[in-house]
Amino acid sequence: MTGNSERYALTVGIAALVVGGVLAGVALASLGSFAVGALAGATFGVLGAGAAGAFLAGRLGEQIDDVTARVERLQAGEDASFDADAVGPVGDLEAALANASTSSNRNTEATIEEFCSVMRRGADGDLSARVAEDQFDDAFGQLAEDFNTLMANTESTVSELQGFADEVAAYSREVTLSTQEVSDGSQRVKESLERIAEETDEQTESLETAYQEVSDLSATVNEMAISVGEVAEIAQRTAEASREGRAAAEDAIEGMEQIDSEADETVEAIERLESEVAQVDELIDSISEIAEQTNMLALNAHIEATRAGEQGAGFAAVADEIKSLAERSKEAAAEVERRLERIQERTAGTVEEVRTTNARIDEQTVSVRRALEALDEIARFAEQTDTGVQQISRTTEQQAESTEEVLGDIREATEISAEVTEQADQVATSARSQATALEQVSNSAEGLAEQTGELREQLASMEGTGEPEATTTGTATPDVEADGGVSPDELTEPAAEGSESAGGRPDQS
Amino acid sequence: MSDTVSAPDADAPTRVELLRFTVGGSAYAFESGRVASVRVDVDVTDIPGSGPAVVGAATLDGETVVVVDARTLFETEAHGPGATLVLDRGTGERPVGLVVDAPPEVETHGVERFATVSEAAAEGWAPPMGTGWFRAAVEADPWLGVLDVERLVSRIDE
Questions:
Q1: Element spanning B43, H or E
Q2: Measured between alpha carbons, how far apart are the two ends of chain B, in Å?
Q3: Is the ipTM of this complex over 0.90?
Q4: Residue A195 CB: number of other CB atoms within 10 A?
Q5: Which of B28, B6, B15, B30 is nearest to B150 (CA)?
Q6: Mutation for B interface: A303, A307, A310, most B CBs within 10 A
Q7: Which of B24, B30, B36, B44 lies closest to B102 in space, CA to CA?
Q8: Cβ of A296 and B32 within 8 Å?
Q9: Mind listing the pLDDT tens digit for each residue in A308-319?
Q10: In 3-state terms, chain B is what percent helix, strand and coil (to 5)?
Q11: How far is A329 from chain B (nearest CA, A)?
C-alpha cells in the first residue's frame, strides 16, 4: 500500500514536472521565437512547475499512505485512530474511517476489506475501481462516496496527465522536428550568408574596379574638357579669322570691281584710239593714193618733157623732182601706215590683254565671292561649332560633376559593401553559434521526448484495465477546496496555462 | 657696141634714158622716147576675134589704142597691180598699149654700157623668150634687154 502511494505521488510529480516545464518552455520559446530562449524557458519551466507538482503529489501521497497504514494496523488487530475532523480529500476519508470505526465489527471488517480491495486496485493502477456506495450504512456510505470521488478525481487527473503527456510527446517531436528544420534553415542561412559575404567581397572588388574605371573616366572627362576648351578657342579664332577674311574678300571684290571698271574705261579708250588710228590709216591710204597718182603724173610729165627734147629738159627736171617728192610722200605714207599697223597691232594686243585681264578679274571676282560665301559659311559653322562646343563643355562639366558624384557613391557603396561583408561574417558566426545552440535544443528536446515516453509508460500502467465497474457510482467531484485541500485541476493548471498562453501547440515557424 | 643704135657723134648724148619695168618678174626697158605715157586703171573694151594677148581697145587722149598684155605675150604670170605703157610706134601708126607688172622707173645709162643683141648674147645674155624681141641690151647684173616696139607689135600680129 505504501509503495503504490509513493509511485503514484512520484508519477504525479514527474508528470507535473514534465508538463509544467515543457509548457513553460514552449511559452517562452513562442514569445522569444528563438531556440536558445526556448531551451532556457523550457528548462526554467520544467524546474519550477516540476518542483510544485512534486511537492503537491508528495503531500497527497503521504496523506494517503498514512491513512492506508492506519487501516492496515486496524486490520492486523492493532490500535489505530482516525481524525474525524480531518479536512481535504484524504481528511474526508480519514473522518469516514473514524466514523466507521464505531460501527459494528462484522460490517466494519467487510467494509474495510471492500475499501482495501478497491484501493489495492487503485494502487495497482486501476483507477476505475469504485466502492459500491449503496451497500453501506450512512457512515460507510459517505466514506464510499468520498472514496469514489477521490478515485474519480484521481482517475480524471491521471487521464488529463496522460493527455498532457501525449501532447508533451507530440510537442517534443514537433520541437525536435522544428529544431531540425530551424537548424537546417540556420545552416542554409549560414551558407547564404557565407555566399553573401563572398559575393559582397566580389562586389567590393568590382566596386573598387568600377571606382578605378570611373576615376579613369573622370580623368578622361577632364582631359576632354581641356580639349573642348581648346576646340572652343580654335572655333572662336576661326570665326574671327573668317570675319577678317570676309572683310579682306570684300575689299578685294571692291578693288577688283574698281579695276574692272577702270579696265572697261581703258578698253573704251583703246577702242577709241583704234577708231582714230583707223581714220588715220584711211588718210594715209588717201595720201598714198595721191602720191601714187602724183608719181604717175610726174612720170608722164617726165616722159612728155623727154619727148619735148631740149625744150622739155627743165620741165623734165621739175617732173623728176615732183616724182621724187611723190615717191618720198608715198614712202612716208607707207612708213606711217606700217607704224599705224604696229600701233593697231599693239592696241589690239593691249585691248585683248585688257579684256583677258578683265575676264580674269571677273573670274577672280566670282572666285572671291565664292570665297566670301565660303568664309561666311566657315564663320557660321565656326559659330555653330562654338555653340556646340559650349554645349559640350557644359555637358562635360555636368558629366565631370556626375562622375565625381558616382565616385562618391562608389566609395560609399564600397564602404557599405565592406560593412555588409563584415556584418555577414558576424551573422554567419552568429548563425553557426545558433546552429550549435539549436543542436543543443534538439538534443534537449530528444531527451525530453525520451523522458516523456517513460512518463507515458508509467501513466499507462496507472490507467489500469477497463472501464469502471458497474457497481460503482458517483463521478461528482467533492468540494474539497472548501476544506482547504488541493484540487486535481490545480495540479494541471500550470500546464493548462502554459498551453493556453502558447495558443495550443508551439509555433513551428 | 651695136649697129642698131645710132652711132655716136660729137653732138650725140652720152647717156640714154630708159623706162625700166617688169613683166612676170623679169626686167625689161624701153627707150623713154618710145613711151608716150603711162596709165593705170585703163578701161578696156574687148575686141572679138583678137589674139590671146590682146586685152581689148581703149580710148586714151582721144585715140583708140589696142591694149596688149605683155605677160600673156611673154607667156609668164602677172607680178604686180599692172600699168599700161602707151607705146609710140614713131611711124604715124596707132599707138599700142602694153600692160606690164607695174609703172616703170626712169633710169639713165651711159652709152658705153649699151650692147647689140649679138654682143650681149655673146656675153651670155639669154632672155627666156629669145633675143628677137630686143633692140639692144644694157650691161648690168643681170643684163637689161631694151625691147623693140615694132618687133613687139609684129609678134602681136603673129
A1: none
A2: 30
A3: no
A4: 12
A5: B30
A6: A303
A7: B24
A8: no
A9: 888 888 888 888
A10: 15, 40, 45
A11: 16
